[in-house]
Amino acid sequence: MDTSQNEIVELVQATNVEFEGDMLHVALSDGRRVSLPLDTISWLSWLASATSEQRANWSIEPGGYGVYWEELDDGFEVMHLLNVQPLA
Questions:
Q1: Is residue 11 part of a domain?
Q2: To the nearest whole number, what is the mean pLDDT of the chain?
Q3: How does strand 33-37 pair with strand 59-60?
Q4: Is 87 within a domain?
Q5: Are 17 and 67 within 8 A, CB to CB?
Q6: Per the domain annotation, does 77 fall within a domain?
Q7: Is residue 22 part of a domain?
Q8: What are the phi and psi torsion angles at 59 (to 5°)?
Q9: Which SS3 state, helix, strand or coil, does residue 6 take?
Q10: Residues near 34 by Cβ (< 8 Å), separated by ≥ 6?
Q11: pLDDT tier at 88, thresholds 50, 70, 90
């Protein structure tokens, strides 16, 4: 069976979100945990500048494809987390 990268990403869902200082941790349905430093990922600057209370008020989108912060009116899709390039 030939499964493309996009199909794999579509099958993976977010199941939990945690913060540790300025690190974002997202648990995925396949058992992986993606951890990103908020201060070095430019497209997460809105989350880096949020308060702890704002960060804690997240919800997983239906189907688990993304995470959304209603108070911040922003969020991201799991596929974007999985496509982040390593720092050089």
A1: yes
A2: 88
A3: unpaired
A4: no
A5: yes
A6: yes
A7: yes
A8: -145, 150
A9: helix
A10: 25, 26, 28, 81, 82
A11: very low
Amino acid letter, 51: T
Separation CA 15–CA 33 (nearest Å): 10
Six-digit token string for 41: 């990922």
Q: Does residue 7 register a pLDDT over 60?
A: no
Alpha-carbon gap, residue 44 to 12, rounded angstroms: 20
Question: Residue 59 has which token pair?
Answer: 């919800």
DSSP 8-state class, residue 57: -
What's the structural domain count of the chain? 1
The phi, psi pair for 40, rounded to 5°, reads: -115, -5
| Segment among 40-49, 52-61, 78-87 with least mean pLDDT | 78-87
Confidence of residue 16 (pLDDT cuts 50, 70, 90): very high
Residue 24 near residue 47 (C-beta atoms within 8 A)? yes
Which CATH number do you get for residue 52?
A: 3.30.2020.40
Task: Give the range of the structural domain holding residue 53, as residue numbers without chain letter.
Answer: 5-82
